[in-house]
């Protein structure tokens, strides 16, 4: 009797799986190691970088490294927050705001709308590292990836004089307030 039960169970499982709708695997992103040092985890690091940079956007003028890291952090937050189990319940209202802000910062920098977030993050951090090392040509090369539609030099010029991104500023501040709320719903109390 057991000999017949196993194939029947396998057939039943296969039939049920065929009926279930296909779902794309969740998109995941990560920050480079050097972006997380001292922050404890990627979420705190991205939150700190983005919220401090966009809290006073005029401070970004002439700071392409800070601008690159802040935009990369916003890319990370946009993908990570909706699926992060530590904050899932507390960020529902800000996720649409982040998605709208992404359209804004990508348009400002000439990042292709369909660019994979991980590639955006990696290239922006690579450009930032190159600039910190005084290697302007390497920064331009990092931003010469086809997802940066303006080209490396023009993208670097925008990072050096980032326009005020109102939706991005508002989203960064809102995410920071939501995740560091005193009622314990965010990551600040965990």
- In terms of DSSP E residues, the strand content is under 5%
Please give the largest β-sheet: none
Distance between the termini: 53 Å
Question: Could you say which structural class the secondary elements and strand pairing correspond to?
Answer: mainly alpha
The H/E string reads: HHHHHHHHH
* Number of DSSP strand runs: 0
Q: Helical proportion?
A: 55-70%
As residue ranges, the low-confidence spans are 12-25
Counting H and I runs of at least 4 residues, what is the number of helices?
9
Using only C-alpha atoms, the radius of gyration works out to: 20 Å
Large-scale geometry: globular
Let me know the average pLDDT.
Answer: 83
Domain unit count: 1
Give the key terms.
mainly alpha, 60% helix, 0% strand
Short description:
The protein is an all-alpha fold and 190 residues long. It contains 9 helices and no strands. The chain has one domain.
Secondary structure topology:
Layout: H1 2-19, H2 33-36, H3 42-55, H4 64-80, H5 95-109, H6 117-132, H7 136-142, H8 152-160, H9 166-179
Helix pairs in contact: 3-4, 3-9, 4-5, 4-6, 4-8, 5-9, 6-7, 7-8
Describe this entry's structure for a reader.
The protein is mostly helical and 190 residues long. Residues 12-25 have low confidence and may be disordered. It has one domain. It has helices at 2-19, 33-36, 42-55, 64-80, 95-109, 117-132, 136-142, 152-160, 166-179. Helix 3 crosses helix 9. It is built from 9 helices and no strands.
């Amino acid at each position: 009797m057991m000999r017949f039960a196993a194939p029947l169970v396998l057939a039943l499982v296969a039939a049920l799986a065929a009926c279930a709708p296909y779902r794309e695997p969740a998109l995941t992103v990560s920050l480079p190691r050097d972006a997380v040092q001292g922050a404890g985890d990627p979420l705190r690091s991205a939150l700190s970088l983005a919220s401090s940079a966009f809290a006073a956007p005029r401070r970004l003028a002439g700071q392409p490294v800070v601008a690159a890291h802040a935009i990369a952090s916003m890319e990370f937050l946009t993908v990570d927050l909706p699926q992060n189990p530590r904050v899932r319940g507390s960020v529902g209202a800000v996720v649409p705001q982040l998605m709208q802000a992404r359209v804004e910062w990508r348009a400002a920098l000439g990042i292709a709308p369909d660019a994979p977030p991980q590639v955006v993050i990696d290239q922006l951090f690579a450009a930032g590292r190159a600039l910190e090392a005084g290697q302007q040509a390497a920064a331009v090369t990092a931003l010469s990836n086809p997802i940066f539609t303006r080209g490396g030099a023009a993208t670097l010029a925008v990072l050096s004089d980032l326009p005020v991104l109102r939706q991005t500023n508002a989203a960064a501040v809102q995410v920071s307030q939501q995740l560091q709320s005193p009622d314990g719903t965010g990551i600040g109390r965990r």
